[in-house]
Structures are given as C-alpha cells and as structure tokens.
Design brief:
The protein has helices spanning 50-54, 72-82, and strands spanning 14-15, 20-28, 31-37, 45-48, 68-69, 95-102, 105-110, 116-119, 125-127, 129-134. With 138 residues, it is mostly beta strands. Strands 1-2-3-10-5 form a five-stranded antiparallel sheet. The chain has a three-stranded antiparallel sheet with strand order 6-7-8. Strands 4-9 form a two-stranded antiparallel ribbon. The model has no long low-confidence stretch (mean pLDDT 91). The protein has a domain at 40-128. The relative contact order is 0.24.
C-alpha cells in the first residue's frame, strides 16, 4: 500500500491543513519542528504586558488548540518569511512580545524593522499565537 506523503508548502504560504501560514522549520529540543502562525492580525492580542504575553491562553484557532505565545526564534522566522501577516506599519503597535527572556530581560520583536530588543516587562505590546509540531508527525 502506498501512503501519500504530506509535505509542507513553500515557506510563507498558507498551510490551511495546519492552521495558518508556514513560517519555516527550527530545531526544538533536538527535533525538527514546523512553525505556523495564523494568517493576519485578527488573532493578535493587544495591549499585553510580558506576564500576560508569557501566560497567554489562545482559544482554538482553525481547528487547533495548541497555540502559544511564540519564542524569539518563531518571531524571527515570521519576520523573515511571513512579515506581511503582522502589524508592521510603525510605532509601538508593530512590536510583539515573545515568551523568551534572558538574564531577567524580556524580548520583543519590532515588525517594522526586525529589531529584537529587551524591554521593561510592564510595556504593553501585541502577542501572536504560534504552534509548532514535530516534522515526522505528519
């Protein structure tokens, strides 16, 4: 019996079967994982501080309930490969919290210019859901 192998679309294209736009692949805990974010800003949470961003709970989106605030690497993949899916017209409204932090500093990504910067945890920015799944699981 021949099974049809499922393959990812081109990076930056809609992957409807996986709930969003395919941002690329990264290694997480030694495993290759696909990274997907919902298409468009309709799923962004706005006006969130870091604590709210880090613990954000996302409802089911496009048939999946495993969405989380993205890590810095997820956002960087999205900036390079799917920037048009994000608010990127300037100002503080183009800044997204990641759930990543280092030495007590919280990281945010500005989709206007791709700048990754540490910020005060009380600052209020956007939050975008991401999901990742093991490449061999599909």
């Amino acid at each position: 019996m021949n099974e049809k192998k499922i393959t990812a679309p081109k990076i930056g294209e809609l992957w409807a079967e996986q709930g969003g736009v395919y941002c690329g692949m990264r290694i997480i805990d030694g495993e290759e994982r696909y990274v997907v974010t919902p298409a468009g800003i309709d799923y962004d949470l706005t006006g969130k501080n870091f604590a709210a961003a880090e613990s954000a709970q996302f409802k089911e989106i496009n048939g999946y309930d495993d969405w989380n605030t993205g890590e810095q690497e997820d956002y960087m993949l999205a900036y390079v490969n799917a920037r048009e899916q994000f608010k990127c017209d300037g100002g503080m409204d183009s800044v997204y919290w990641t759930r990543s932090h280092h030495h007590g500093w919280s990281w945010a990504v500005d989709f206007e210019d791709g700048n990754v910067d540490s910020s005060l945890r009380t600052s209020e920015f956007r939050v975008r859901p991401f999901r990742s799944f093991i490449a061999s699981s599909i």
